[in-house]
Design a protein that fits this description.
By secondary structure, the chain is an alpha+beta fold. Helices cover 33% and strands 11% of the residues.
């Protein structure tokens, strides 16, 4: 199977590719962290340089072998894709390159949800208030 970091990413919505509940999602998982966690579970994992079709930034993906050639699971504790995603969501925050479950680059920055509501509401109100005036003007001129 193929695992993209977007499947586990906290910043993505379900429509944009997250496959697990937001409460369990991880902040910016990397391909190498996912591959490392798969290897800790005893699964064969191969990072690839392909990008997720919904994103143009080439983050990569991990190809994982869940079953042997005869169809039996490699690790009986991880029989399917969904179980693997939940186990990865538990393990990635505990990887060596993370501080308090966050990537080192983001460890000193505030959480992504802090202060996001006030900036989006003010910009949305300004853009929405200016749109109706030109449309009314244009309709009057066409009569």
């Amino acid at each position: 199977i193929v695992i993209y970091p977007a499947y586990l990413e906290m910043g993505k919505s379900m429509a944009k590719g997250r496959r697990i509940p937001k409460e369990l999602a991880v902040e910016e998982p990397s391909v190498f962290e996912i591959a490392e966690c798969c290897k800790q579970l005893g699964l064969d994992a191969l990072p690839e340089g392909k990008h997720y079709p919904r994103e143009w930034l080439p983050k990569g993906r991990v190809r994982v072998a869940l079953k042997k050639e005869d169809g039996t699971p490699v690790n009986p504790a991880v029989p399917d894709r969904r179980t693997l995603l939940f186990k990865l969501a538990e393990m990635v925050p505990k990887c060596a390159g993370r501080v308090n479950g966050r990537p080192k680059a983001l460890a000193n920055k505030p959480a992504p949800d802090a202060g996001a509501g006030s900036s989006s509401s003010s910009s949305g109100a300004g853009a929405g208030g200016s749109k109706p005036a030109p449309s009314k003007k244009g309709k009057k001129g066409k009569k």
